[in-house]
């Protein structure tokens, strides 16, 4: 059906929202800034102690006429015209100590800011949480574009019909590589994301990168009208990977040979089901199956979608979500 949705939604620009998704997860924790402030105040305290306690003792032992050159030597290391060997050794010792402490503090600050995390953090070795997400559609029935959109479980949303407006919303618990495919009632699979212009061979690099959310269309509270087509069950598949889909992988072959459907049962047109990793979702109140027939596991298109997810797609995609729903077309 997207497929039957305006092709302009597949011709969107660069993946700016994907960059923003990642940007939200980058930055310094509050402990980083606390450590930074501790370093700064520690350095200031050390310098205050030196200037109030150590330097006056050295200065008291230097003739008044040589004090300017002694200060210069201590601050920037220039030679000073002081002939007392004991004082020369003392001032060099203190100067080197001050420079060493300053250098150590600078290195600590640079290390903290470069890492983006407080010292001794073990976050980099932590195991990332398991992939988890949701996939939903929002529907505006024909002539109701000025009203709030309906979820599939709400009365009046099913079956979808030509000229209804549809919005796709996908969300993951953490960023990953996200692939979206539409499988219509004619058995035709249409690539939606990250492919451009519904072309399996056109997968731009600026779109094929980790992201946490995806909305089609991108503008909030808007949908694309559905084009006419044969009646049947439409399926929207969310396929998720930890790494990019290999460049040589032709995903269209995994959808080849999907059968056409015979249409909808006129006595049961309110049909929808959500799947997670090939199994029906039953623990999410807004996504429990609607009129899912358990006895037609061979011919029912809902169960064919389930088999497609488990048998053909799971080897490539460790996490999948799908939503299937009735479309009453021509």
Given the structure, what is the number of helices? Answer: 5
The percentage helix is 25-40%
Q: Please report the distance between the alpha carbons of the first and last residues.
A: 13 Å
Low-confidence stretches: 8-27, 75-84, 117-121
Q: How many E-type strands?
A: 10
N-to-C series of helices and strands: HHHHEEEEEEEEEHE
Please compute the radius of gyration using only Cα atoms: 33 Å
Average pLDDT score: 77
Structure class? alpha+beta
**Morphology:** elongated
Number of domains: 2
Sketch the major β-sheet: 10 strands, antiparallel
Q: Strand fraction band?
A: 15-25%
Kindly summarize this structure in a few lines.
This protein is an alpha+beta fold.
SSE map:
Layout: H1 16-23, H2 30-60, H3 67-76, H4 85-115, E1 133-140, E2 150-151, E3 165-183, E4 189-193, E5 211-216, E6 224-225, E7 232-241, E8 272-276, E9 279-280, H5 301-313, E10 319-327
Antiparallel strand pairs: 1-2, 1-3, 3-4, 3-5, 3-6, 3-7, 7-10, 8-9, 8-10
Helix pairs in contact: 2-4, 3-4
Give a structural overview.
This protein is an alpha+beta fold and 330 residues long. It has two domains: 30-123, no CATH class; 127-327, no CATH class. Mean pLDDT is 77; it is low at 8-27, 75-84 and 117-121. α2 (30-60) runs antiparallel to α4 (85-115). β8 and β9 form a beta hairpin. It starts with 15 loop residues before the first helix and ends with a strand. The protein is elongated and about 105 Å long. It contains five helices and ten strands; from the N terminus they run ααααβββββββββαβ. Strands 1, 2, 3, 4, 5, 6, 7, 8, 9 and 10 form a ten-stranded antiparallel sheet that branches. The protein has helices at residues 16-23, 30-60, 67-76, 85-115, 301-313; strands spanning 133-140, 150-151, 165-183, 189-193, 211-216, 224-225, 232-241, 272-276, 279-280, 319-327.
């Amino acid at each position: 059906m997207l497929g039957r949705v305006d092709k302009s939604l597949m011709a969107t620009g660069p993946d700016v929202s994907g960059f923003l998704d990642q940007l939200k997860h980058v930055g310094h924790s509050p402990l980083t800034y606390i450590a930074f402030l501790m370093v700064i105040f520690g350095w200031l305290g050390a310098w205050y102690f030196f200037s109030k306690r150590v330097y006056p003792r050295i200065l008291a032992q230097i003739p008044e006429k040589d004090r300017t050159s002694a200060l210069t030597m201590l601050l920037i290391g220039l030679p000073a015209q002081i002939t007392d060997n004991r004082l020369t050794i003392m001032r060099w010792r203190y100067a080197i100590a001050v420079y060493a402490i300053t250098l150590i503090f600078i290195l600590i600050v640079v290390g903290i800011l470069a890492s983006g995390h407080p010292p001794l953090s073990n976050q980099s070795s932590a195991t990332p949480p398991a992939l988890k997400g949701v996939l939903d559609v929002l529907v505006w029935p024909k002539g109701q574009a000025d009203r709030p959109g309906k979820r599939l479980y709400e009365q009046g949303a099913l079956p979808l019909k030509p000229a209804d407006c549809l919005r796709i919303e996908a969300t993951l618990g953490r960023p990953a590589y996200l692939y979206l495919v539409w499988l219509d009632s004619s058995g035709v699979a249409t690539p939606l994301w990250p492919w451009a212009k519904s072309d399996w061979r056109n997968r731009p690099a600026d779109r094929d990168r980790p992201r946490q959310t995806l909305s089609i269309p991108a503008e909030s509270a808007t949908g694309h009208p559905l084009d006419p087509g044969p009646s049947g069950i439409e399926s929207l598949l969310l396929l998720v990977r930890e790494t990019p889909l290999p460049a040589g992988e032709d995903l269209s072959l995994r959808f080849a040979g999907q059968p056409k459907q015979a249409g909808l049962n006129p006595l049961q047109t309110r049909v929808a089901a959500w799947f997670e990793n090939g199994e029906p979702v039953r623990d999410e109140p807004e996504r429990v199956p609607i009129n899912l027939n358990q006895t037609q596991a061979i011919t029912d298109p809902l169960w064919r979608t389930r088999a497609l997810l488990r048998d053909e797609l799971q080897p490539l995609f460790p996490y999948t979500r799908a939503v299937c729903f009735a479309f009453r077309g021509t």
